[in-house]
C-alpha cells in the first residue's frame, strides 16, 4: 500500500496534469454563460440547461466538474449555485474575469505553450513559428479576439487600479501619461482620486479603441487627452510623470530599452517614470503567486518578453538613462510600483 506522502505526491502531479482540462471547464462555463445562468441563487440542472441552450445530461456533467474545481456548489442532488470564484465568470459586473478567462484559454494563446520545451531549449518565442507572425500582429487579423484581449487587459488591471492611486503621491504632478494605457482603466482611477491632475492616454488606435467610452463614463473626458502613437517610436511630451503598466514584460530587453529611452527623451529631468509590473524575487518565494512564474513563461512562448527581478529592472533603467529610486509592493494585486528617475 502506498504511503500517505506518496498518495499526496501523486495527487499533486495528477492535479497539475489535468490542469489544462480544468482550464477548459472554465472556458466552457464562460462560453455557455453558466455563471450567468446560476446568478441569483440555486438552480436545477434543467434550469441551467434551459438558460444555456444545452442538453440536460451534458450540462449536469459540466456542472459537476465545475463544482469539483470550486466554481459551484451542489447543495442538493441536481441543484447548483455559483461560488464566489465562479461568480467572477459572469459576463458583467464588478470584478468580472470572463474576458480574461476567455482569452487565456483560447487556442491562440495556448498553441505556443505546446512548444514550451522548444522555447526553453532555444530561448526563442514559439508563437511566430505556429502562426507566422508576432502575437500582436496576429491579433490585428482577429478583431473579436482583439476586443476580448483589450477587455481582458482591462479586467486584469482593476485590482491594481484600486490600489495604485492611493499608494503613491500623484498630487505632486500636473499631468500624467499612461503609456500603452489601453482602455484607460488605470488612468481613470488615478485621475479620479487626484482631481487637480490631468492625463494623457497614449496607445495605438487599436489599443485605445475603448478608452473614450471609459473616460467619458468616469466623467474625465475633459481632463484626459487620448493620443494615438507607437511607444517604439516616441512617448508623449508635455507631462511630468509617465506610467507603464504591464508593458515592459511583453518585450525582450532590447525593445524594452527602446520604450524606456523614448520615455526618457519625453520626460523632463525632474519627471518620474512609474513602472507597474510584477517584480520577481531573486529566488522563488511562497509569497509570490505561481501565476507570476507562469506569466513569465507565457511571455517566453507568446511574446518574447519576461517577468523581471529588481536587478533586471535596474539594468534596463540604466541602459535607458534612468535609475530605480524605489520599488513598492502593491498588495493584493501581485504588482509592484518601480519608480525611476533621470540618472
Automatic annotation (TrEMBL):
Catalytic residues as annotated in Swiss-Prot or TrEMBL: 249 (proton acceptor)
Superkingdom of origin: Bacteria
GO molecular function, one term: O-methyltransferase activity
Ranges for domain O-methyltransferase C-terminal: 113-323
Classification via InterPro entries: COMT-like, COMT_C, COMT_dimerisation, SAM-dependent_MTases_sf, WH-like_DNA-bd_sf, WH_DNA-bd_sf
PROSITE patterns: SAM_OMT_II (PS51683)
Protein name: Methyltransferase family protein
GO biological process, one term: methylation
Taxonomic placement: Bacteria, Bacillati, Actinomycetota, Actinomycetes, Pseudonocardiales
